[in-house]
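Kindly review this protein for my students:
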Amino acid sequence: MVFVRQKIHEAIALLDGSDNRMENMGMSMHRRLHYKQQLKLVAACILIGVVFVIMSFNCQLVQTAPLRLKLSLGCAMNLPTFLILSADVSFLFWVNYVRTKFHQLNNLLRAMLPATDSASEKGISKMIQDVEEKSLGKEGVHVVNGNANTMRAVKQIHLQLVKIARIINDFFGVQLLLTMSTVFVFLTILLFFAYRTIFSGYFNNEFHSHFTQLLINILFYLSKLFTLSHVCNRTSSEASDTGELICQLYEPSTSKEFRAEIRDFSMQMIQNPLVFTACGFFYLDHSFIHGVVGTISTYLVILIQVSQIDLPEQAANVTATVTAI
């Protein structure tokens, strides 16, 4: 617990430092945007919880039970799902927050690229000038050599954001491993049950309710798989895009100090790549989605083939053969 608490304090300190540096450079913190994103995630979490309670209320509990008892049992049955979903939402918010900061840094670097249009060039020059007129960091060091100090500040902020993202990933590592393992197992089972339900040929009054419940669960776990992997992949891509931008800024016409900062920045990015993992077992990106889909498809084919074998009939045939012999 002490180690976890130290990591949290370290992440908060790094986050405050990067925010102060970016604010001193004239970048907007977009606090209202982050509040809206957090409210949307909380609203989505509440909506999913209500849907699961309603499903338990209508499909899994006895209809004649008292209303309070059914509501209490519905919430209790879905409590583990609520807890895991809340942790997933927290992880999504912080990773998306870090991605927004990387995007702001990349926009600043794009503004430093040479422009072909004269009007754009004037606007970009003014933007860079406004940034360079501000102090870079808490220490109050003012720009002397133009873009070199700007690049140095961007390099420091980028490293801080990478450290913050790693601390977040380490803090939620066990949670991510549990979530993705649950997604894999439940998707395989639910898809197999959906196949058996569709091709069973028994369409009674309870068919639609059971199939609707299966479909909602499948969509829920699919959304967790795609959302978590996609957000992690976008954040990693946004962090790696910085390397391409600084390579485009490396030109012989710039100052030696500026080119030296770019070389240091490139080495820093090579030594500190940003990747998201589930306790180091696998990477969370688009390739993970492909791997999970392929593995689930393989297991489904095996389960379907095994389920089509009529074991009692085969046992009877074997017994008859042995008796005849």
